[in-house]
Amino acid sequence: MSEVYKNAYSLELNKPLEPNEAYQLSIEKKLKENNKFQCSEDCDFQLILVNFGKKDYIQAPHYRSAKLEQSHTAGCTLMKEQAIARIGQREDSYSFTRNNSKITVELDLIKGLLVEVSNSKTTKTVTGSPTGSTSYTSSNGDSTDNTKKKELHKKIKSLKSLIDYYERVRQGELFDIVDRQGVPLNLENHFHDLRIHPELEEGLVKIYIADAWVALWGSNDNPYYHLKLTSECELMNVIAKPTLNMNKRSSIHRGVANKEKFLEKQARVGTKCKVYFFGSFILNESNDNFYINFDLNSQEALDFLIFFPY
Ligand SMILES: [Zn+2]
Known about the structure:
single chain; about 300 residues; alpha+beta
């Protein structure tokens, strides 16, 4: 995903180049384009040089993946080297353990983790809002709730790591993902890509993948983010692009500052982004019109959303 590559193969000079070397050549205009790089001579995974040709920069020049949906060539030397480098590593997380390149998912993703995430909130439908929003009966922050909240954050963080591994496997990284019995686990079954399968079931908690636009609307003293999926979905015979309104101020809390910054930037540049959403969708009605909304409220929304730029 945001993986940094230490080296790249220049398609303009037909040789490997370190980032600083490539940067220097870009300043001297001996390299013309920032996207004429790939993983190695034998692997056509596209890379870009960050800060290509820029005189001033904050982050040191480095290589990054040029796009989200691509995969390393089978037999890629870098992937093999990275698998070797993982030997002896161990990672314990709430929902999985990793030994070397073997990831054992400890939970039944659907019956375990996700349902608990869903049950952690009590929903109440509010009508009369055209873009739709759901309000939640808020709990009174006693210690049990705080413990539950902490527990929930731990689970979400762990799930994020698992999503990251899922994407890395899709990009060609050599991981084996298995369940507790050691049977290969297809994480695809727990993810629902709305760009390919637009059918929704109300209240069905999954890890949804979609593309979205972000806008910043409202007045100066009450700005809110309007997130709208780029593709239409179907929920109980209603066909619409699901939306979510997030009050800018109330959505900011500990641990989500970077996500909020990302939303701000997306709203400014107006390009679509990729979004992962843990949760479910809900149908709202206003003036005889039906809307499909994310089942989230402003306060917690950013906990359940992960964004990636294209
Ligand atoms: Zn490669």
